[in-house]
Queue: 2 jobs
Job 1
Amino acid sequence: MRILKYLGKRLITFIPLLIGVILVTFVLVRLLPGNPAERLAGTFAYEETIKALMERMGLDKPIWQQFLIYLKNVVQGDLGESWFTNNPILEDLIVRFPATLELITFSLILAFIVGVSLGVLAAIRPKSIFSRISSFYGLLAGSIADFWLALMFIFIFFYKLGWFPPPIGRLDLMITAPPQVTGFLVFDSLIAGNWAALQSSISHLALPVLTLGLTVAAPIMKITVSSMMEVLDSDYINHSKVLGLKENKVMRYSLRNSMPPIVTILGVLYGTLLGNAVLVETVFGWGGLGQYVTQALVNKDYSAIQGFVLVATIFSMFVYLLVDLIYMAVDPRIKY
Amino acid sequence: MKVFGDFWYALRQSKGGLAGFIIIMITLLMAIFAPIIAPYHPEQAVPEASRLAPSFDHLFGTDETGMDIFSRVVYAARIDVTIAVVSTIFSLLIGVPIGLAAGYREGLFGEITMRIADVVQAFPVFILAMALVSILGNNVQNIIFAIAFLNAPIYLRFVRSEVLSIKHRPFVEAARCAGMSNIKIMFKELLPNSLKPALIQSSVNIGWAIMLTAGLSFIGAGVNVPTPEWGSMISIGAPLIITGQWWSSFFPGVAIGITVFGYALFGDFLRLYLDPERS
């Protein structure tokens, strides 16, 4: 019940924010010079054609009415058509979404493991080598361009050592994809019992996940260090130490209590990763949302770009909301 | 001069801060003296000299079209550092006054401002930047504008929360009793006392801006080829990676890494120097 009440409160701020975001994406395409109808009709179109098009697209109406039309379309899932693929944009995005989601989910899991373990080590031994490694890593990882790191990984692990397949797509060309159930190739091949596909999909995932995971681990590590230090300093931890609890039990308690800020940053990073994936997907020919949008950039397919911006933002907003709810369910101390 | 002396003394005490400062100076000098340092013209393609490995003639090798990578890395400091510094100054110029006003006038104005900031920050930064630049047109002004616009809410929040915490202090009340106008109170009393966190952040943000510019150029939504820019150079070299010519992408990426690292180190030092009680 607490959660429902909180959800209600959150929705009061969430919905205006959502409308604001839709307004921004609406304005975004309006920033383009010239008239959208003229652009669509081409340079040599008759005046009447343009006029008719304007009427059909609702461009003769006042701007606020145009926004309401756009809002209505968005709510109904109509993001327009891509003039490059000729498909409804939402359909294009949905087809490509699982590839990106698989990539960023595994990256986040790797980042979580690396970040939290380094962070915990640095927090419990503040004067040790771990602490210095972790603070150096934190600065360094934030300074490395992930798309560059991806290229270097390809050079070392594919070109030099030959450990991983060439950076094209999610599966070897010779392997038939398992039937789609979850959209995650790893899980789908497991479900289908297709071991060749499983192996191939994991080896294709390895490098991009390593790239994104290692760069995104840094902020998780920093939060873990500060949150863990605070908890280790608290009275109840000292108390349990005084009572003579075993060290690993104390550690388990303190890790659990330092989780909330870590969970929050995970939610934020999910959205950030969607942005970083645009670059890394291009490097690995991943065929997900990121590659779709870079193609749209090259083709000046503005409604596709607009649709992607909107979907990506709404996705990260929902993740954020979800994280808040989980947080709320996990931590009984929080009251709203 | 005393302020400067203090700063210099503190800087020499801090290894990281000094390293960051030196890196920043090197990139600035590289940008200013590019024509003297670079042995070749940065946009001169020499087809016969394409894909040469690093050697004494070409320190960092040459790329696909035979342009000298060392010269281009040096020249690129101009465009990357300019975009980063100018966009950060612009976002301070946008964010700081609005933050001041939003903190000083909390009511409806403050509320609306913060909701607008919420909306801007709801977008993943790279994604909105990419869309903005591609729609406004890929050129340096638009990249600067986009980065400035996207980072302004960060400063706005920093300044606003500082203003909220100091605006009921006696010195502000005293200024009001002395008959100072609201504008004067904001800029003479509140501004100097609420700028620190924003200034500290700006060093880190210059680094981010370099990263963002490079990322945009990498996917073709930034500076156009053949203008020397680190991100676009990495993208020119990308297809050569799987044929073994690593140098074309390697060096510009190292330049990005070192520069961003330098600004981050310097930002860390600034935090300790300007705001010791909070760090």
Job 2
Amino acid sequence: MWQIIKNRIKQGCRTCRYPKEEPVFPERFRGRPVISHGVEAVDMGQCLFNEEAKRASSLGVFDYSTDYRMAVSKREDLILKGNELKLASALNKKMRKLFGRSLKLRAVCAGSCGGCDLEIQALGNVVFDLSRFGIQFVASPRHADGLMITGPVTQAMAEALMKTYEAVPDPKIVIALGACALSGGPFAGSPEVKNGVEGLIPVDLYIPGCPAHPFTILDGLLRLLGRLETNRKQLS
Amino acid sequence: MSQIPLLEEKFFQARIKEACQGGARLVNLFGLIEENTAIRVLAFLGYDDEDKLLLFSMRLSPDKPFFDSMTPDLLQAHLFEREIAEQFLVQLKGHPWLKPIRKPMTREPGFFRVKGEETHEVAVGPVHVGIIEPGHFRFQCHGEEILNLEIQLGYQHRGIENMMQEVSSERRVWLAESIAGDTVIGHGLAYCGAMESLSDCHVSPRAEALRAVALELERLANHAGDLGALSGDIGFLPAAAYFGRLRGEFLNLLMALTGNRYGRSFCRPGGVLFDMDSKMIDEFRRRLLKAQQEIRELSNLFFTKPSVLGRLENIGIVSSETVKQFGFVGPTARAAGCARDVRMDHAYGMYRFHQIPISLAENGDVYSRAMIRWLESQRSIDFLLELFARMPEGDLLRPPGPLKGRHLALSMVEGWRGEIVHVVVTDSNSKIARYKIKDPSFNNWMALTLAARGMQISDFPLCNKSFNLSYAGHDL
């Protein structure tokens, strides 16, 4: 008992100060792409945030910034032209009233490698502490206000995904997380996958990444709920 | 390829059974379609004590697409044979439980069922509790006791093996890094090893050392995460919280090195993409020393509490006999006293120069598997600190040449879950004709089935966490 208390005191509070303080990323972190030259557009939905893409590929040449904010509300907003990114806008007033202070999500992995799911799990740890924002992951779709979907949607998971979607009571929100859910990611074109959620289910929030950093996910969720200072100003 | 011994079915099977009785282990058994459309079955036998691998093969002619199952005499062949039957539509005679392993479920032969007045069945999944990958679990129970558990996977099947044969070399490495999201470095290294072997590319000592750094960081992150998850499952929340954060510290080290929390875009055929300067090495050393102290304190907190021990001991036992029979690998095998570790048995890369002692436990229960994670975490940190003191020099990346035609390469890596095996076969045009991936989860899912037998349903989550197997790695 004393040992537990002693450890507790020693550990102290480890929860990050976000969103009051901006998180700091290491120099090599690959966040939002920055178009340098000769590139018309970068589709962040297809981007695997790998080093090669930066050097040379069909996408052209670009660089990565350490900016973690990348979540958007519309699929076309993921296509980065110039260096302006239209970050996710908040839900309408009625939805915000329903979910703004309490949002329950069911995570559905539909063929991901497990990376994005690990980052959703990480959101629950003491550093990110998702529940302090009133957002929780629940066990049953019947208890959920929406889905967070990862993976390219394998043929084997398509039916289960649709059933889970139908089991969530209306009104509901859908969040597509990671390159696979947005475009099929590295598996795009495989006959075993459906190249993401697009076209199967209407999506309210797109979060790019491979996998998306927990702060990227958190930023997207808080923007959707109109909980960040910046978009709170826009709303008022 | 032409030098691979080709045996008749009878001798092929007799040879495998004989070798396995003599202490060898079936490392891989898979099929490929030859240029003349015949099916060739390749077997790799591992003699772990002698650092030796044996390879031989047999051929199935297109007009005789069936062979006798070895499973009744050799249990470790069971899933390999089911995989061959599924991938090549061949008939297997005498296999006790022949059903698809990745294809969507059909009615036949259904699930193994127990009948009786007091028995009941529990079906879970594919979408099941928690933030977790999909799989279907079918429990046959008598009251709270689990009589049998059948695990049906395949929901994560993305067709990676076939894609590896078709896509460009640039895309292949991204696919390899996406086989299992928590084993990015492990599978990335196995892929790179195979490619380097097929193109006679020799990686510099510097790159080998950096690869070992990334692989051990991956192991540390996952082991810490697993200890946290086990603490969470038994309701010991202080340790769950601290281990969960510690996992993040290791992931952040990987991010500082590679730009990604899971180490993507680091390992590439020919070397690595990022270097560590002396400043970064000092920084890593400082952070690792801190983590070392913390993990020691947390483990002392965790492993000394009677309520923790009471919940972990004698739960989900997998004995050393079972490990040998079914060919389990990684921490599952080591927790039962079987000294299997690719880093030691078939040393590769940096592990040829810096050995990591194999950590062993005795009982094969959840406690032993938890203990193995703590022991291995300590060994990994010691290894890294030792390595940082003498980082070798060399090129970061030596671009590999074209692949050799009609060759076979096998690449083994000890990932944090156990032995990862990639086998690549090229055709006469130097194209990849077969890419076979074996994640340790492929061997070890059966261990969960066996561990759950005789336990209470409420022990299942604990047993499951103690293995923490990959669905994606199994389904490919």
